[in-house]
Design brief:
Blueprint: E1 9-13, H1 15-18, H2 22-30, H3 33-42, H4 54-61, E2 70-76, H5 80-92, E3 99-102, H6 112-115, E4 119-122, H7 125-133, E5 138-141, E6 155-160, H8 170-189, H9 201-211, E7 219-226, H10 233-243, E8 249-252, H11 259-265, E9 269-272, H12 275-281, E10 287-289
Parallel strand pairs: 1-2, 1-4, 2-3, 4-5, 6-7, 6-9, 7-8, 9-10
Antiparallel strand pairs: 5-10
Helix pairs in contact: 2-3, 11-12
Amino acid sequence: MPVSFDGQLVVAISSRALFDFEEENLLFESQDDRAYMQLQLDRLDVTAKPGVAFSLVNKLLAFNVDKPLVEVVILSRNDPVSGMRVFRSAQHYGMPIQRGVFTRGGSPWRYLRPLNANLFLSANEDDVRSALRCAVPAARVFPHSKRASDAHPDEVRIAFDGDAVLFSDESEQVFQRGGLDAFQAHERDHATHPLAAGPFKPVLLALQRLQHRPAGGMRIRTALVTARSAPAHERAIRTLMDWNIEVDEAMFLGGLPKGEFLREFEPDFFFDDQTGHIENAALHVPSGHVAAGISNP
């Protein structure tokens, strides 16, 4: 019987998102791939430090107790030699990652389709944008983000922005054309009309399925963290209700900086479509940019 990932949450992740390869990456950018390959080979027995998405992936894999619920695949521009260090590092941390694609500088996003990936995390913006164009939820990780807190070892905590992430950018377009007053009026008038899905609705839906299948004591906790405020909050809540999706926390911040609120929520990862929000959040929590919607032409 061929292997199938049916019913599993499939996460594709670059080696630089999973592990801290920033020092090695500087060599790659300043010299060439040969020097980079040699350095990775020289460090083959040196375990890489956790990267920005390490906590998220490690906790998701903890759901695989009685049966496989989460599959993590390395999808990397690294070369196969460097891939050996990636697998060895994963083994050191007890992460049961078995599959990987290493393209030595080539764009790996095209392999997302045969994987039926639910999520792609990478430090490469071009790969992320290509994945989003193919309707695969994807985010560019900020490698220098603050690492996740270890205060919630039995809980995967994930925070999402609303417009252009969970929801379509319909309302953001109104805001950018007409300003805050036009946005608030539009959302008040359309409060009972659910928003169209954004690129990360499938991720939230997959997480809810996991939430209903707790394993090994691991749980999911989600938060909507948005610049919306009353009365625009109602349409966001009603949209989630229409989708039959629940979030555990919702923060309607009305333009307040998100970073300090996220610091208190302590997510393993936060997704937003605006780089300004991500730069503020990255000071406090692991963060990734979703290059979707009108703010990301």
